[in-house]
């Protein structure tokens, strides 16, 4: 009985409520995260983010194949966010742009809900909520490392993901069954 009733609900209505709910959750997290700040220094919280998500939904649904309304709406949002960010820098001398980037992601929720699997959309929402929540933890974590450790990490990534894949994996000769790629892997193990 309940499943029959749920099947009568058009999928666009379900997707609308998902976009509105996810936007609202992001806005609630923004409210909670910025609860100790002055209200005039905030871009927006639950209502603003919900409306941004709904605006993205409306402009996406109007023309999902052409995307012109959605893109113009995105440009408008970016212009408004840029004005706010410029004012924030000039008046308050604050440079953080995380909330503004989250607002742009919130605007893009409708295409995500329509085109991506449910698990991907939920994963994105969860990451946004977690990254917003652990700002101070990440700041403290990054203070524990010095510059040399990041340079070492960068060198490792270059070796592992740039140099190593470029080396041939064919043996040098028939008598010596070692390739440049294997030789480089041995060298990398020696560095540890």
Can you put this structure into words, describing what you see?
- By secondary structure, the chain is mainly α.
- It has two domains: 2-143, no CATH class; 147-191, no CATH class.
- 76% of the residues lie in helices and 0% in strands.
- It has helices at residues 2-8, 11-33, 46-62, 68-92, 98-107, 109-115, 118-133, 135-143, 147-166, 180-191.
- The chain is extended.
Largest sheet: none
Number of domains: 2
Give the helix tally.
10
**Percentage of residues in helical conformation:** over 70%
Distance between the termini: 63 Å
Number of strands: 0
Radius of gyration: 24 Å
**Low-confidence segments:** none
> What's the order of the H and E elements?
HHHHHHHHHH
**What proportion strand?**
under 5%
Mean pLDDT: 82
- Seen as an oligomer or otherwise, the chain set is single chain
The rough form would be described as: extended
Which structural class is indicated by helix and strand composition? Answer: mainly alpha
Summed up, what is this model?
This protein has 192 residues and is mainly alpha-helical. It contains 10 helices and no strands.
Task: Provide keyphrases for this structure.
76% helix; 192 residues; mainly alpha; 2 domains
